Amino acid sequence: MPRRHASAALALASAFSLALAFGPTPAVAVGAPVRNIVLVHGAWVDGSGWKAVYDHLVADGFHVTMVQEPETSFADDVAATRRVLDLQDGPTLLVGHSYGGSIITEAGVHPNVAGLVYVAAHAPDVGEDEAALGRSMPSVLAMTAGAIEKTPDGFTYLDPALFPKLFAPDLPVARAEFEAQGQVLAAASVFSTPLTAAAWQSKPSWGIVAGADQIINPALERFYYERAGAPITTIAGASHSVYESHPREVAAVIEQAARALGQAEN
Questions:
Q1: Which residues form the signal peptide (predicted)?
Q2: Which fold has domain 2-139+204-265?
């Protein structure tokens, strides 16, 4: 199944590239892009981090909505995403960063979802969870003792003193420090809940690798995307906060996916 949808995604991306190079012809007209885009943030942060990507997409005519998942349980976060997908008025491109990749993998079977974009994200299969997969290819975070703190009631956060260095080293220091102090604490269980659906098996997907990611091993990101048959864009030197530090490049991949999906629908 993934191979079939991999070929579809590659064909869509190729068609889009050809359209850019040569323009539409009477035989093959370029269709309107998928207009609706839903952005899903990862653990310890919130949807405000998408602001620069949002600005680029809206300026180019897309209807963009951010999910604010509570991070209280994986089921709650998937439900929050489905709730936003229910509000979309047509085909939608679902985008996830980091832990948000697990969310869009589960929620992406929603009928409004036309395709998926993974941004430095996890993409488990059915029965897998990102914590176990992360242990198979450890990140710098995983090898940094004491980096992840836990409250007595089982919620996790990244040590604020280490957040700028590990999560966002390519953001201005003051901004990274602000985010470190504004973390959304995530239930530890969200990382170890096995998935019951894998939307990348049935929906065209695209993937962005953050070349200098210290939260998720870039090799693991690439493994996920290759397994899903997703065209891969690597942003060299980018941290886990690639969607904030390189918003134009991230938005460009999202727009390419939206236009390719739109062409396929016409």
A1: 1-21
A2: Rossmann fold (3.40.50)
- What phi and psi, each to the nearest 5 degrees, are found at residue 187? -55, 130
How far apart (Å, rounded) are the C-alpha atoms in residues 50 and 147? 24
- Measure the CA–CA gap between 5 and 11, rounded to whole angstroms: 10
Q: Where are the beta strands (DSSP E) in the chain?
A: 36-40, 63-67, 92-97, 113-119, 148-150, 155-158, 186-187, 205-210, 232-235
Assess whether pLDDT exceeds 60 at residue 27: no
As a whole number of angstroms, the distance between CA 251 and CA 232 comes to 14
- Residue 115 CA from chain centroid, whole number: 12
Q: Is-contact 66 54, C-beta < 8 A?
A: yes
> Would residue 105 be called left, alpha or beta, if left means φ above 0 and alpha means ψ between -120 and 50 degrees?
alpha
Residue 18 pLDDT exceeds 50: no
The closest of 213, 249, 204, 229 to 42, measured between CA atoms, is 213
Strand partners, 94: 38, 116
The structural domains of the chain, with segments of one domain joined by +, span: 2-139+204-265
Which residue did the predictor score with more confidence, 223 or 265? 223
Q: Cα dihedral sign for 27, 30, 32, 37?
A: positive
